[in-house]
Write a structure and sequence with these properties.
The chain contains twelve helices and 22 strands. It has 442 residues and is α+β, with helices and mostly antiparallel strands. It has four domains: 127 residues, N Utilization Substance Protein A, Chain:P, domain 4 (2-Layer Sandwich), CATH 3.30.1480.10; 67 residues, Beta Barrel (OB fold (Dihydrolipoamide Acetyltransferase, E2P)), CATH 2.40.50; 82 residues, K homology (KH) domain (GMP Synthetase, Chain A, domain 3); 66 residues, no CATH class. The strands form six sheets. The chain has a five-stranded mixed barrel. A five-stranded antiparallel sheet has the order 16-19-20-21-22, with no helix packed on it. Strands 1, 2, 3 and 4 form a four-stranded mixed sheet that branches. A hairpin with a 2-residue loop joins strand 6 and strand 7. The chain is elongated, with a radius of gyration of 44 Å.
Length: 442
């Protein structure tokens, strides 16, 4: 153990990626437990310290002993004269820490070291991994696919393992052993079996980190990503703005001949990415967000936070996108509900609305003319609140009009009832029976 100890500790530390000091610390704690076992089943409470020489592997035990006149058990007691050699001012009844290494402790230490290597080093490794990754949540990490298990993809990240759960996987992706890919580290859980690293390929912040990696202007802050809307594996829209005059934010992200954006698309296995100019003007921002479609006009409704977007007829399908994808992502990107109409459809709607208004106005004028020429007949409201006109009853008109005199005027379709020159009810004329009343709200 003396000759091979240091080499063995160094080899374990190198293989596991953990400091030698951490291994020594675990072994010292294990040796304390091993020493206390040699004291019997119910030893008195005492402080024990083990010092392990990292070069030779020799273990020395220092244990508290009580100072007494006469020693009955040298495992727990020490005579005053011997104690004063360690601590000159010690008195009877005090405790003093003295070296108490058993003769055969080398064999005990060797057995314990073997057990620590087999059992305890993994705990140290887990703690070291947690300490290494605990502050790396939200980072972009390069991982290697190891295997799949119950739908999860197990990734190797340095000395640690990460899990890519099914909900964090892109449907279009295919994962195979040895594949290298970039993932977004979403969560680090501390569990009994060790730290659990959760990675994602669907998180929209994966897009943010990829742009930071590929676009220096975003990394150094001269270009800012304002918002991201993503349908993983299919399409992503990114709104960018320049923080410094003279910089083209969209051009910076695309790169010369599109090389920067192509690198990101390749990492995402062909997922389409639209980079658009952000604007503080909602109309301009919405128009940009619908890229690559061209926009004629944007009408905003602030009350329900919606926008009506007019596009040329030939751009309608492009603006909506396959299964509504383009307009859906534009709505997520801008935060506005977006309705799209073609210019022709809008003109047709406006024409139809104008025709409806004209028809209503003409009908109102015709009714007004008919009423002005209609014969006025007077009736007394019956006890049940109705009036009789051409052998048909109409009503009820309400309790307040019972016994009152009302005036009747009729057009070809309707009967109008007035009281004190105020219209109180209107009925559709019927051949027989009682019609439904349309009360005047005045």
């Amino acid at each position: 153990m003396k000759s091979d100890f240091y080499t063995a500790i160094s080899q374990i530390a190198a293989e596991r990626g953990i400091p030698k000091e951490a291994i020594i610390d675990v072994m010292e704690k294990a040796l304390i437990t091993a020493y206390k076992r040699t004291l019997g089943n119910n030893p008195p409470p005492m402080e024990v310290i083990v010092r392990l020489d990292p070069q030779t592997g020799m273990a020395r035990v220092f244990a508290e002993k009580q100072v007494v006149d006469e020693v009955f058990d040298d495992r727990f007691e020490i005579e005053l004269e011997d104690a004063q050699r360690v601590k000159p001012d010690v008195e009877l009844g005090d405790t003093v820490s003295v070296e108490s290494t058993p003769n055969d402790f080398g064999r005990i230490a060797a057995q314990t070291a073997k057990q620590v290597v087999l059992q305890g080093i993994k705990e140290v490794e887990r703690e070291y991994i947690y300490g290494e990754y605990m502050d790396r949540e939200g980072e972009l990490i390069t991982a290697t696919v190891q295997r799949t298990a119950k739908g999860n993809v197990i990734l190797e990240i340095g000395k640690a393992e990460a899990i890519l759960p099914p909900k964090e996987q892109v449907d279009a992706d295919r994962y195979y052993h040895g594949q290298r890919l970039k993932v977004y580290l979403t969560e680090i859980r501390r569990e009994e079996r060790g730290p659990r690293l959760i990675a994602s390929r669907t998180h929209k912040n994966l897009i943010l980190r990829l742009f930071e990696m590929e676009v220096p202007e975003i990394y150094n802050g001269t270009v800012e990503i304002k918002s991201i809307a993503r349908e993983p594996g299919l399409r992503t829209k990114v709104a960018v703005a320049a923080r410094q005059e003279g910089i083209d934010p969209v051009g910076s992200c695309v790169g010369m001949r599109g090389i920067r954006i192509q690198n990101i698309v390749n990492e995402l296995n062909g997922e389409k990415i639209d980079v658009v100019q952000w604007s503080s003007d909602p109309k301009e921002f919405i128009a940009n967000a619908l890229s690559p479609a061209q926009v004629v006009e944007v009408h905003l409704n602030e009350d329900d936070h919606s926008a009506m977007v007019i596009v040329p007829d030939k751009q309608l399908s492009l603006a909506i996108g396959k299964e509504g994808q383009n307009v859906r992502l534009a709505a997520k990107l801008t935060g506005w509900r977006i309705d799209i109409k073609s210019a022709t459809a809008l003109l047709e709607e406006e024409r139809a609305a104008a025709e409806a208004r004209d028809f209503a106005q003409a009908e109102a004028l015709a009714t007004e003319a008919a009423l002005s020429n209609a014969k006025v007949e007077t009736r007394k409201v019956r006890s049940d609140g109705t009036v009789v006109y051409q052998n048909n009853r109409y009503g009820p008109l309400g309790d307040s009009l019972i016994g009152e005199m009302v005036q009747l005027r009729a057009t070809a379709q309707s009967l109008y009832i007035y009281h004190n020159d105020r219209l109180v009810a209107q009925y559709i004329l019927i051949e027989s029976g009682l019609s439904e009343v349309v009360e005047n709200e005045e």
